[in-house]
What we know:
By secondary structure, this protein is an alpha+beta fold. 30% of the residues lie in helices and 18% in strands. It has four helices and four strands, in the order H-H-H-H-E-E-E-E. It has a four-stranded antiparallel beta sheet, covered by helices on one side. The longest helix has 15 residues, at 2-16. It is extended and about 70 Å long. The N and C termini lie far apart (54 Å).
Amino acid sequence: MRRVVLLLSCLSLSACSLFQRPFRPERAPPEESARFVFPLGFPPGEHTFIPATLSTAVGLAMDDFLPRGAKPPKDPTPDEVCLAQRSSYDVLAKALSDSVVLVSPKAGACVQEGLALDVGATYAVDVDGWRILAVQR
C-alpha cells in the first residue's frame, strides 16, 4: 500500500510540470493604466512598420539567444548584468528569401568606453515552419 501511495505522489508531482502557465508580460497596476490616454489615431510622423514574418523571427531568435527570465551568473560584473537583459539588445533582421529571415542580436546598450561587446549570433529562421534553421556564433 505504501508503494502505491508513493507512486501516486510521484506521478502527481511530475504531472504538475505539464500545467505551466505560458509567458505573459507584466502589466501596470490599474491606477497607472487608467492615467494613460491613447491619442486619437496613430500619432503622425515617422513610423516603423515591422512585417509579421520579421517580428515572429526576431521573437524566436531572442527566445533562443536569451530566454525570458535569464539571470546573470552569481557575483556578476556590470557587463554580465547588462548582457542578461533583453532590453540591452538591438536587433538586425533581414528577409533573405521568402522563407528565411536572418536575425542578429547586438548588445548595443552594453557599450562601455566606446568598446562594443561582440556577444551576438546570427540566426537563420525558417518562416514557413517557424523554426531555427541554423545559428552562427
